[in-house]
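Batch manifest, entry 17 of 40.
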Amino acid sequence: MRTAIAMIFAGGRVEEMSVLTERRPKSAVVFGGIYRTIDFALTNLAHAGVGRVGILTQFRPSSLMDHVDNGYMWDLVGTTRGVRFLPPYLGAEGGSEWYRGPADALYQNIDFIERSGADDVLAVSADHVYAMDYQHLLHFHQEKGADLTMAFVPREDASRFGVGELNAAGQIMNFTEKPEYPRTNLCSMSVYVFRREVLVEELRKSVQGAEGSPTFQIHEVLRRMMTRRRAYGFIHHGGWEYTRSLDEYVAFHRQLLGAKPQVDLASWEVRSNLMTRRTAPPPPARYAPGSQVDDSMICAGCVIEGTVKGSVLSPGVRVGKGAVVTDCVLWEDVVVGEGAKLTGVVSDKRTWFGKNAQIGIGAPAKSEEMPLSLTCGATIVGMDARIPANARIGKNCIVHPEAQEADFPAEVASGKSVKVAGRKEVAR
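Output type: structure tokens
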């Protein structure tokens, strides 16, 4: 029976996510109230029985490491199972390099890959939200005798992704990165299976520049492999969310709501670590007399005294008396003061909205800071910010972490940002 080891790409910030990834990698961003982005890849691996996992990370990894811990919550602990974080490190010759791309990250951990003794290497991104049975992918790879198998998903917006062309047998005949006019709708999911010996050989050739200029990008390694190796494409028929921009993040959460949600996370059986930095689980949510909740996801530990509509609330959120929260995504321990009105707000952890504050008001205007990523009218608030009482903030605004009451003008017009200069950052 063939064996597999998994390598997870989890190190990138993704600048399009603005303040939500200012102090954490994209893989640690909260989704659906209680999950982190990496949970979906880890859950897929756990369901498939792939128990040896290396996590490649380098951008502010502390919150990610706290969340994943030793992998216990995904049943990835045992004599033949385990999770290991693989940050850049100082080499034997005294030299050190940041990971210069996904291929370089794999190359710098060739020793880890080879020592595993696995037949195949399953490399996946922690940036995407989806449920997939990796065992079907691995079986397909093995049945085809492939050196490389790439997972593809049909999408209408194929020009945003790497696009594959397959023949009737499933062999990859062509692969183009973000073509203006795609010839198929098969988009790369950033999920790959390599035969271990072939991957090691190809990485050494590519990163060491044995065939010309060195390359550190995985798509260049893939392209070279397609010309001389047995390369196949596996088609996944199911949901797959990219959520690289703030607009996509907001749109994904809307898919979780409604009478018939487009995305049913319960059916995915996603595993997570709900005890990160906790000594006890949060208590059940509490709804005070007179509170109203409609078409929302309310997590444990929330206290609702006001009104919540079409929103997703993480554990510990408090909505004060007379407050109205509409179309919002609020992370852990956010406090909405009495009488405040929040519309279309995405808020990081521990933010505080003062009494009678009005957020998401007026006509929308283009975000000056993130004009391509933030166009949907949402207001994005960084962690530990304190919005003053009676504040008025428009649409497509961005509030940076730890902004305090004194940092706010009387009114923040749509499209504007509230930044904090000269304050020491603390990663949490």
